[in-house]
Design brief:
mainly alpha, 3% strand, 2 strands, Multidrug-efflux Transporter Regulator, Chain: A, Domain 2
């Protein structure tokens, strides 16, 4: 199938599909006219990529996780080589969550001070 067909079946833009290919996540062949062609398995691969990216994974991590996915689903079988990367990603997410919580607390403190010290009109 051509890139437009794959885009229509997966909801991914042509630009995203070309990017996934450039990143080594998706494989295409070239027709005699130079057009990219994809096999039927590409549909499942793109759905997996989108699901993993939607879970907040980076393209680098998706590249590591993708070979450990099962069937046509984004379900992952824990590959030994993958566990270290996933633990690192969890630590990164924990740090991000802590930074967001700190920002929220600071904003809440400003709002609280503003409402308790606001002059009455």
């Amino acid at each position: 199938m051509l890139i437009g067909g794959l885009a229509a079946l997966t909801g991914a833009s042509r630009r995203s599909l070309r990017h996934y290919e450039d990143e080594g996540l998706l494989i295409s062949a070239r027709a005699a006219n130079g057009y990219r062609t994809y096999d039927a398995a590409a549909v499942a691969t793109v759905h997996k990529i989108k699901a993993l990216l939607g879970a907040g994974m980076t393209l680098d991590l998706v590249r590591q996780v993708l070979p450990c996915t099962v069937d046509a689903t984004p379900r992952v079988e824990p590959c030994a080589r993958l566990l270290t990367a996933l633990r690192g990603e969890m630590a990164r997410l924990d740090e991000s969550a802590a930074a967001i919580q700190l920002s929220r607390n600071q904003i809440a403190a400003i709002v609280e001070r503003s409402t308790t010290s606001a002059p009455s009109r």
